[in-house]
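In response to reviewer comment 3 from the previous cycle, which asked for concrete evidence that the modeling workflow produces usable outputs, we include below a single protein chain processed end to end. The sequence was submitted unchanged, and the resulting structure tokens are shown without manual editing.
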Amino acid sequence: MQTVAGPGGPAQTLGWIGAGRMGTAMAARALRAGHEVKVFNRTRSKTGPLVERGAKVAETIGELADRDVVFITVASSDDLLKVLVGDEGLLTGSEVPRIIVDCSTVSMDASAAARAAADERLVGFLAAPVSGNPKVARAGQLSMVVSGPRPTFEEVETALRHIVKEVTYVGEGELSRLVKLCHNLHLGVVIQSLAEVTVLAQKGGVKRADFLAFLNASILGSPFTRYKSPALVNLDFEPTFTTRLLRKDFDLGLGEARLLESPMPVAALVHQLLGQGIGNGLGDVDFAAVVEMIGKGAGLELEPENVPVADGLDPED
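The workflow returned the following structure tokens.
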């Protein structure tokens, strides 16, 4: 297996912390591109699909310290700080990697704390959250926003472009975290609006599949409306991103809006509606399940329409 060189530098070896659904899909793309990858996950059995693709397994996080670049895909701010500076964290040993690329969605404060810890050990740190879910990743359609030192970004840019479709560098520090939070605030507002108009069309006598077929073919159609259409039509809420996780990002995003004194009246209302959905048992299913709550508000008990609906995502591998 070949490793991939950074600009003007030696071949890079990659480490990966976090083999959940998203981490596995992203690391698989790195392997597909020919990178050497060593992966750590607290539950070792979850590394199986990556091992089948040629990944090595680290028994401890410390075993990734010899990597040139370590990617992190974890669920929360606390998880990020734990894997970096907690017991046996990546930055606590005598040896450390050269660069860390964190692809998690975390708070600005946690990101700044992680960067400070990396700076103390002279490790380059990039905040690089992504837009999409595991199926989007497998289809090679993820987009990534990156902030941190420009020379560090340029050193790993080739590897990043092997994993995601689009990479946008937005500047120093934690700016990419704000971009991702703004993205997810918009995501919640869009799914709320999409579910509302879909229920309205159904109450007036139009099948959800027919309404969404029209919408997706119109100027308002998008990759997002297309890949959420199967869930809205057939009520399959196997989670790609849960309502609870979306509410967490609304907590973070609205917190930043308060700090910056930037009004967000529509997002604030959707935040309350997400809380209502969680209170109604929709916390751990896909966030598209808010359509059921909207249906009940309209006096409808939604039923799956059981028709095939394309989502526009065909896996590349």
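Confidence is low (pLDDT under 50) at residues 1-10. We consider this sufficient to address the reviewer's concern, and the full set will be provided in the supplementary archive.
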